[in-house]
Structures are given as structure tokens and as C-alpha cells.
Specification:
The chain is built from nine helices and no strands.
Length: 273
């Protein structure tokens, strides 16, 4: 199968340029933000509520950086690619990275009370520390790359953190959880602003579609070829749905995430859209 991103019509180029401008704007906003939470801000309070070894502010900063930088890069690639467009497998990993990074910020910060935000932050922290412990324990057995071994006290501290969170009943978090729950939070927030249900529902549905398609391709699975899509006149299959439309949604959720992160970084408020 030859799969490319069809993105050369005037309408597609307009959407791409608009989305790219959003990512560039998010990049500029993030650059102007303080590097660490201001004292008394919501993220400051989440960090101090329980001194997690991998703090919520560190995780969310890197999540947002991942979404923004991949969004800027993916947009440039699509806008400047010669016809018939960039290869779909090249665009899949940055698309997945954008969705995971932006929705993780939304998942933690949007909706609910401060206690509920903290409970979600703890799930993210468990996910972080569990994966780090897996790496540390594998590296502990290295014979050739001994310099990559972490000090024993670091391994012990991180393992203790993981065990403590699990003992406290913190549930494991999967990327699909953040997509679903952040989508529901966005829909509720948009409806609260007077956005009709049909429009807010469309955003969530496209978010879920994009996640499944681009995650599936990133993992090298074959089912995306079987999902609904249109063949072009030259026989090139552009993949399920429309990456250009998906990019527009990626830009929107990254803009939401940037707004929420900026509020939580500098103010003690319930972040909102």
C-alpha cells in the first residue's frame, strides 16, 4: 500500500497554515511562561501536596513541550512536502505524540475540584515512575553500558515511590484513558461556554478517531488500511479520514492545553477554557 497525506488543495493548505500558526503561537506563549510554578499557584500546590519524586509540573511541562514541538514540525513537513504529500508513516509518530502530550495536560488540569486534579496527577505520577523503574531495573543488569546504571539509592527511592502509590490504591493510567477522559472534559467545558452539543461532540469524536488511527499506524498495525477512507484518482490511498482535519483538532487541543498550563503555572485557580 502506498499511503501519503493528501494536503495540496487550497482548502487543505489553508487549514494547515492555520493549524501551524496555532502551534507557533503556543510555542511563543510557553517560552514566555516561568520555568517553574509560581509560589501559591495551582501547580505549585499540586507539587507540594505530596512530594512526588516526579512532580506534576515537570510531567506537564514536558507533555506540553512534546505536543507543541511535534505540532510545529509536523505542520512544516506537510506544508512544504512535494506532491502527493509526506509519507503517512512519517507523520504518524508526531501525530500520536501531539495527542498524548496535549491530552495529558488537559486530563490533569481541566474539570473537577483541586482534590480531583491531584488524584489525576497521582495517576500520571504512577505511570511515570513505573516506567522509570522498569528502565532502571533493566539498566541495573547491563554489563557493557555500566555507566548508564543509576545509583542504588535512586533505584530504591523510585521503586518505593511506585510501591507507595500502588499501595495507596492509585490506579494505573493508560494513554487511552487520557484521550477519553480529556475529551469528555473538553466537551463539558465547551458546552459550559455555550458551544452547541453537536459541535463539542464532533471535536471529541475526531479526537478519538485521530488517536486510534495514528496510534495504530505508529505501532505498525495493519488494521488502519481496512478503516474507511477514499482512494485518490491516482490510486494512492491517503489513509482513513483526513490527516489535515486531524491536524486542526491537534492544534485546538494543544491550544487548550497551553491555556490550562499557563493558568495553573501562575495562579491558584481551577484552570478553564
Amino acid at each position: 500500500m502506498t499511503s501519503t497525506i493528501g494536503c495540496h488543495s487550497p482548502e487543505d493548505q489553508k487549514i494547515l497554515h492555520e493549524g501551524h500558526r496555532v502551534f507557533v503561537s503556543c510555542e511563543a506563549k510557553l517560552r514566555e511562561m516561568p520555568g517553574t510554578p509560581l509560589e501559591g499557584s495551582r501547580l505549585f500546590r499540586l507539587d507540594r501536596e505530596e512530594s512526588l519524586l516526579i512532580s506534576p509540573s515537570r510531567t506537564l511541562q514536558h507533555s506540553l513541550l512534546t505536543a507543541i514541538t511535534n505540532g510545529v514540525h509536523a505542520g512544516k513537513t506537510a506544508i512544504n512536502a512535494p506532491k502527493p504529500g509526506p509519507d503517512a508513516w512519517v507523520m504518524a509518530p508526531p501525530s500520536r505524540a501531539i495527542l498524548v502530550g496535549a491530552t495529558r495536560v488537559i486530563y490533569v488540569l481541566l474539570g473537577g475540584s483541586e482534590d480531583e486534579q491531584y488524584a489525576r496527577a497521582r495517576r500520571v505520577a504512577l505511570n511515570e515512575v513505573s516506567k522509570y523503574v522498569n528502565l532502571l531495573k533493566q539498566a541495573a543488569g547491563f554489563s557493557d553500558l555500566k555507566r548508564l546504571k543509576a545509583p542504588e539509592d535512586t533505584v530504591k527511592a523510585m521503586t518505593g515511590e511506585r510501591d507507595r502509590l500502588q499501595a495507596a490504591g492509585v490506579k494505573n493510567l493508560h494513554d487511552t484513558d487520557t484521550i477519553k477522559e480529556s475529551g469528555n472534559a473538553v466537551r463539558a467545558a465547551l458546552q459550559a461556554r455555550g458551544i452547541p452539543l453537536e459541535q463539542s461532540k464532533a471535536v471529541v469524536e475526531q479526537l478519538q478517531w485521530a488517536w486510534n488511527v495514528w496510534s495504530g499506524i505508529t505501532h505498525g498495525l495493519g488494521w488502519p488500511e481496512l478503516a474507511p477512507g477514499d482512494f485518490t484518482e491516482d490510486g494512492v490511498y491517503p489513509l482513513p479520514g483526513s490527516w489535515v482535519s486531524d491536524y486542526h483538532v491537534m492544534a485546538a487541543v494543544t491550544s487548550f492545553a497551553t491555556q490550562l498550563y499557563g493558568q495553573a503555572l501562575t495562579q491558584d485557580v481551577d484552570p478553564s477554557l
